[in-house]
DNA sequence: AATCGTTATATTTGGTAGGGTATAACGAAA
DNA sequence: TTTCGTTATACCCTACCAAATATAACGATT
């Protein structure tokens, strides 16, 4: 008893990562803040890292996940597309299902 | 189309890792070779890393996973206990089941 | 007691992923 | 045309982790 089973899942498209937990966190933060730089701050990661993550997400997705605007009112910003929002939702669902599935499987170890 | 879902699972006991894919590979190699140093060579990892992995496995397991002998015929060696063998088997099973489960879940992303 | 190939461990060396910093480009609004 | 806070990108630099190296300890066999 006392064992825990943990997991990391991610989705790839031809050797680029589309979505993982970090990327999903970032997308949620973008949705909350309306900008990539604010999202980076709220997650305590550098803007550079956040930008690299978001860039790779948008490059490997079939449709745009965010719309980024440079300049203009407030300097610009980033917001999720409907596709982006649905991706987050689907990923979270899969992740939760996976946890539940694995928790049940763990008994195979504990009963040894 | 074209998306792949990948996963890493591991089992912890009070914040130490008991088993993960790397550790399972190592245990299998120990089983095949009869020694930790040979196992490390066959996996192209340093002996040190292999030793650290094995040490942490044995420290976090309830019962010994390997029996290591120093000195003696052939200098010593390491071999899996029955408990160790059953751990490997259970982990592999869980992992395979997880892959199958996730592959089926992936449709949630692909149909978006 | 000498040999051997291990396990076990400390110390040093090196490669690289990531952070820090700087700056260009941008466009709406005043 | 100036200001502003963004997005976007290049460059250096360092902190960390992993690898390499060295060496002690060990015990069956001869």
From TrEMBL, chains A, B:
Its signal peptide is: none
- This chain's protein is named LysR family transcriptional regulator
What organism, scientifically named, is this protein from? Wocania arenilitoris
* InterPro entries assigned to the protein according to its UniProt record, in alphabetical order: Molybdate_resp_trans_reg, WH-like_DNA-bd_sf, WH_DNA-bd_sf
**Organism classification:** Bacteria, Pseudomonadati, Bacteroidota, Flavobacteriia, Flavobacteriales
Note the superkingdom of the native organism: Bacteria
């Amino acid at each position: 008893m006392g064992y825990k089973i943990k997991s990391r899942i991610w989705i790839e498209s031809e050797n680029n990562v589309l979505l993982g937990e970090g990327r999903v966190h970032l997308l949620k933060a973008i949705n909350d803040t309306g900008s990539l730089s604010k999202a980076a701050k709220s997650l305590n990661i550098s803007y550079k890292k956040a930008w690299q993550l978001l860039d790779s997400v948008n490059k490997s997705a079939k449709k745009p996940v965010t719309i980024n605007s440079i300049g203009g009112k407030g300097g610009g910003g980033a917001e999720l597309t409907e596709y982006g929002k649905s991706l987050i939702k689907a990923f979270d669902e899969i992740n939760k299902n996976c946890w539940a599935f694995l928790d049940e499987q763990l008994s195979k170890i504990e009963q040894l």
